[in-house]
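Hi support team,

I submitted a single chain yesterday and got back a structure, but I'm not sure I'm reading the token output correctly. Could someone confirm the output below corresponds to the sequence I sent? I've pasted both exactly as they appear in my results page.

Thanks,
R.
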Amino acid sequence: MSKDISIKNGAKLDLIGLASKEIEFAKDSTTHAIYPDDFFNLKPRMILKEGDKVKVGSPIFHDKNDERIVIVSPVSGYIKSIDRGEKRKILKVLIYREGDDKTNHQIIENKKLTKANIISLLLESGSWPFIKQRPYNIIARPDKLPKAIFVSTHTTAPYDIDYDFILGERLEDFQKGVSIMSKIIEKPVTLTVTANRQSIFSQIKNLDIINVKGKHPSGNLSFQINRINPINVGECVWVINPEDIANIGSFFKTGNFDSTRTVGVSGETVKNPKYYKAQIGSKISSMISKNDVNNFESNRYINGDPLTGTKVDFDGYLGYYNNIFSVIQEGDKYRMFGWLPFKDNHIPSFSRTSFSWLFPKNKKVNTNLNGDERALVITGEMEKFFPMDIYPMQLLKACIIEDIEKMELLGIYEIIPEDFGLIDYSNTSKIEAQEIIKNAIQLMLKEVG
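Hi R., thanks for writing in. Yes, this is the structure output for that exact sequence:
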């Protein structure tokens, strides 16, 4: 196995307003929320009802397709409301925080832990949803063990966070989590780190460390898995967020579900962008207030990075997996004569006609599409930002017409929607590539399984 991989395709987006390396504890959030849509392809069935009391780690709902997979409360208190949409779809479960009661689990001595013990404890504690499975990026299925487990601290997305910084004081928990997960697969966990940079994880045991070099999207695990340990037919791998590895380690040390979520709040209009220690589902206003943001009404607030995140109201809540919270300007102002060269060159573009390449330090963005949806024509531009042996345009066309056989041949099992984030930003067709891929994966899960 190669110990160093390099990806040439892609682009670097160094946006203004990256969170500085300082951590502050978020204010206590009186309410926390869980969004079922954060769990791709999970069909929630409520275990509790409004008014029921919860502890940290109390099961709230489970997956209709597998009742062993439960989503638990990140805090102590009671169920304040269950918001539903069309056809009674559960949109949000709101928890009022009160007290600090915790659900305790009996942890067997480390030497006596078996695969079955570990999987059972992860499922019972609600820590299992931290583990995702490729293909499809769904919550891992307990009945099928992976051929490898991937964790990546090599980050390249705009406003992405520095795991070496946020986990500097949690190396003991991280080591515990790695040791536990390596027992399941009976071999080292694969950890990818940024090449030519000293990593704090270099002394962690039970790791196979791979150096990664390249622009975005070299930080996306799909590309790393493709180059390091490709998924063949019938195989799967698991992927885990680095902080969630530490949370798993914390659980096996204390017996309590750990809902720690360190969030990098970034954005050009954020007055003091930095990191916040919070819990899963915390209220956004517990980290930043309206006074902490310039032009409050003219911004878009995003759970995640600007390329792949989800729009959220300022009065909303953090997503389950989010380590990034982004603030960018809304593109709601008409650019008169915006087609003229040298006009509005503060907006980074990969098109040479915009002349923004003459101003490489001006990395300001907004949400303006700068045009309407157009026909997909063969230009080769998508391949410039897609460093896999896959034809992205042809795959998108197969997904649009729902040709499952072609989708399989063109690599649908190797990718997830976020891998098309840079394509969404760069392609002149203005199509929603990530949404197309998401719908295609849902079709595959329904028709193929």
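A quick pointer for reading it: Confidence is low (pLDDT under 50) at residues 353-359. Let us know if anything else looks off.

Best,
Support desk
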